Amino acid sequence: MAFMALANLFYSVFHVFSLALLIPFLSVLFQQVEPIAEKPEFAFSLHAINDTFNFYLGQLITNSGSLYALIMIAVTMIVLNFLGNLFRYMAQFFSAPIRAGMIYQLRKDLYTKLINLPFSFFSKIKKGDLLNRFGTDVQEIEWSVVQSIIIICRDPIMIVVFLATMIKVNLPLTLITLLIFPVVGYLISLVGTSIQKNAAKLQQLLASVSAIYDETIGGLRIIKGYNAIDHANKKFQEDTAAHYKINKKIFRVYELGAPLVELLSVVTLLIVLLIGGVFVLKNSNLNGEFFLFFVVLFSRIIPPARHLVTMYYTLKKGLPSLQRILQILDADEKIYEKERPLSISSFLQHILYKEVYFSYHEVEKKEDCKILQDISFEIKKGEKIALVGASGAGKSTLVDLLPRFYDLSFGEILIDGKNIKEYRTNDLRNLFGMVSQDVILFHDTVFNNIAFGRSASREEVETAAKAAFAHDFIMEMESGYHTVIGDRGMTLSGGQRQRLSIARALLKKPEIIILDEATSALDYESELVIQESLNEAFKNHTVIIIAHREETLRNMDKIITVKDGKIYEATDCKK
Length: 575
Hints:
Layout: H1 2-20, H2 22-29, H3 46-64, H4 66-116, H5 119-122, H6 127-152, H7 155-169, H8 171-177, H9 180-218, H10 220-225, H11 229-254, H12 257-281, H13 288-329, E1 350-358, E2 372-380, E3 384-388, H14 395-400, E4 410-415, E5 418-419, H15 425-429, E6 432-436, H16 446-450, H17 458-467, H18 471-475, H19 494-508, E7 512-516, H20 524-537, E8 542-546, E9 558-563, E10 566-572
Parallel strand pairs: 3-8, 3-9, 6-7, 7-8
Antiparallel strand pairs: 1-2, 1-4, 4-5, 9-10
């Protein structure tokens, strides 16, 4: 940042010096150079510098002629312009890591935050809205905030250098030109407030449109199956029409700033020309060449001033996007680790649910917990536990508490006698392998989906696939284990997706396996076969099964029936 500001300072200084050469150029051109017999004493004033330059210029004209002097001044102007533009490029060169680095870091921080946020966060916000924040909002910040930083490090420096030079040329005339800024500042603030207010509405509507896109792609089968194309299209058209109206309004107001500044600048320039002309005609210390130099300097202030106005509007437009991003970055992760958490690599004795209460929202009393209430039971190492009950009874939530996808509201869960909050979260989650009814697969190869998050050999992946009865259909695919299965495994049947998910869990070889209706997408015969395979594969493991068919409850050690968030019945099958 410092190098960028320094380079911009040198650019501005060289730019002013190249413009200052207009004075001697015009003096030579109109033969108004007054010879100076003795070299003037140097002083930090524009007239002293001008006299010193005229001393050497007079000697140059005397020795080589006026034409040669003009050529030398022109060459000097070219050199100064070259140096100025060189430093301008250096400023852009130094700004590149800042511009690219800020967005790179922002995306990194967003993704890191995203994968660490608890599940409860995602229940409050649509996926399409989240995707919009990662895409459009980040892009808006790149075009507004980052670009504004570049302008802030460049244009104010130019304005200060030009203004300082104008003060040196003529202070009263400079003060007159400054009268424009309070008027411009007031008008800018009015327009900027309007832009920010409408930009916030715009981003909300854009998030709604993105959510509709996402829901349409995911629910296209339902939309077509229920002949609801017109209904879906009507909702989309309403949101996009509202987005169009606000976007149009923002563009119209946004583009008002630069012409407004330019108009006021031209009016001020005309006033400066009139007043400056009076100064020159009254034979003040402002001669024609210096007056022209002053006018050129003022005209050069207009572009950076316009950039600053545009930057202000751009920042106002990008501020709502920044606020939406900060809502994610500042979101409470809620799943906190102790300062010095314990490590755990194996499960040795038992898991104990002890008077567990849970609600998705913060509550003050146990009685306010509607999801889980007063849950207490024990799972010993090596046992196979079945959780049964109606949909919405709280079975999945019960097991989601174990790897701390959520933190319970009251009570505690103990593993080997210690509260799970005492353990390092990564170590705790490494104990569990999960296969759920809602199979999650990625747009990648079969091999990478099975080996997800692990470094596994081809032999290990195949062994897991065979145990899940997935190897045969995988080998029938076009590229076998290297076949890309599409977004969410859309090229596979429901049963095939389920088998890959089971293979992934088998490959991990976890201490505790959680099967959340893991075979629900399979036909009856396949379910029995894979259930037998799972029983064999995990015969020495602790298994928690959320079941939907009675046939899957064979060989269970305990069956716990959950009803309305409470344990309705607990049956010990070994007695």
